């Protein structure tokens, strides 16, 4: 945006004049900036300066170049295949193994696909009750991390490579010292883990060295919530939320649908409630009060933008509205009290079928009061259960210590040995702790991790850890079930599991990780163990715990004058642990659609006060931190709030993740006082919000119906000059339910993993050249300060009357007998005519050869069933035609009719909310045919007469939904 276009008053007036159903994409489109206009008017921007050759090769190779090490890897001898399995290894036939990917200590159950001994794809485990076959973007990208050449590959001593024999000798000497001191001086810092095997080993370590101290190092852990539950119920407990039963959901600065280790489970429950409500089985109301826009807020019936410091007042008012005798007066505006009244009315009307969720960053008083309110509503046993903690280190009265306590011990000179296990506290801890300087006082420092990161660089010893896909372990899923982490391939480097390293300290024995896991589960008979390996888990969900009645509490109100900052994990790279994965760096963040960087989020009013626009540099002052970053104006954000996101500003992430964005450390409270001012700098941001905009149409791209009358008017299909071609056999089609889509982007990453889609880098994304076959358009509706957010996934429409087919001069894009709009890559000469003819803007052109100069072994990670496209070739969504062909061939070999219900596209497979249905529209009994008969069904840009096979179901709203700033 140019300086002259920075006119917020004009934008507000412009939006006030729009009709109620009008949508807008972003501030650049409102301001009609030259940059935005260029992207709208030209499908392909003019040639931009090419990337520096060295940087380009680093980027392309970073997450794949060493994949060839897996090319000749053997299947682990003890691994047991899952159910979809051939009787013997056959070239070209995939094998599937059930395993799990730990994320923040919580197991994500998956099935891993291997070809010729190489893992190439992960999918959710359909047999596991938490997954149901779905998974999130982080889990999809774990396969890329396995092949990352920047993973640590050998042990190091003072930065230089060494051998495991040297490590064994050093640990033997330390063990002798610990035996004489009973472990005094040994301090172990652990990342989050729910591994029963690691728990058993740590207990053995504590029995041997009872003076040893243990610490948590997970930056976004649930420590405070567990402390509150111990205070309220007498024991630390995890809340298990059943959103499928919650007819009324109230979220207070909480985002259950957003990124996190429980996202898949919670999205599945939320979507099931929406489906039941659509069938007339109860309501699906949601009231969200939050400081920054989230996916849960985007799906809310009524959303309130409010500063975190007003959360105690909000809970106080809600308690009073629900019948509590509260003496204090909440300091809320009339508009905020109106939101409280509506939420309380809905809660009382649905009582036990309601649920209140609160941020784990909220004060202990607020969290405790919400626990009491849920109990009073009767939510326990209906929408909420309490379970024993899933993660290690939260036993009753024996919580592991915090990094603040470690800092005190370091300052006091009480630490002689420091072990940092699977964590990076020098990047994620608060700067006021001063860990970087204090670490130098410790005589023996050891780090074990996937990467030689910021913490490893400050330790004497660094030990490389196995990836979850090439080492044995176990972990508990969000429902408490125990999953077996089964390797898909032998270790690619000279690495060890955490279990082997602990055993090395205890005994000097170079033990087998599988043996350690099997010891933990020695009570399980061999036949049951084999079945557990095939299924992927070994125990059912943890039982619910009965809790006593919570007492009434006094809420302490918070006073923060002026601005306050909130620090949240980045939705794509989290706390920085995924910073070196190009798939996730290039994945548009769900609300802002930014890639390759973090930003400083400001509301339109705050940006107007500071005098900045998107991309302007700002300086933010926090207690103990001063940071510089790019401003990003986020409609719908609370006016007095500055949004900061972790995961960037790293120096030792790897060649992909180094030097991006700014560094900010997590804070332990819900918010802190802050200030912001313009720095006078200017940043170029890689944002996809203004890319690929649809042409104007009388009908809005996203249709909305009311719950009371969920029916769209009949669409008038324009007559066509072309004769319809109807062939016998399957006719493929897709229906996307916008009432279930949360905009989480899991489908985008799944498509990239399945179809060998290239990572192009920030510069190319900024030029409008991102290659994703499936994009999620984010629309705003309403005012500048309090708009509604809407999401719409757009793959190829596979039009029956496709304009691209008539436009191609060499017949490189053609129509198949089963209704697919196909690309013939070796015919394409790169005229790009097809893309200019496509009204949906879903075709992608290879401006560069993204695989140039890559070693042949780079193909080890890629899907061999999908062609790797060359420079000058157009590409697009194929409806995963390789999966269609594989299913057809399998049925033909078995001598059976083609069962079209077996075909599942990658995006459909991974979607946690099951918003995507795909199948044979010629089969009137198929799920996709039933969806096309739904009264909410419509076609995008139907007036053009393209007759798309990809269609939509309108979003359902419950009464008058609204957003308020």
UniProtKB/TrEMBL annotation:
Q: Name one Pfam family in it.
A: Fer4_11
Residues folding into a coiled coil are: none
Q: Which SUPFAM superfamilies does this chain map to?
A: 4Fe-4S ferredoxins, ADC-like, Formate dehydrogenase/DMSO reductase, domains 1-3
> Taxonomically, which superkingdom?
Bacteria
> What high-level taxonomic lineage is stated for the organism?
Bacteria, Pseudomonadati, Pseudomonadota, Gammaproteobacteria, Pseudomonadales
The UniProt record lists the 4Fe-4S ferredoxin-type domain at 732-762, 819-848
Q: What is this protein called?
A: Molybdopterin oxidoreductase
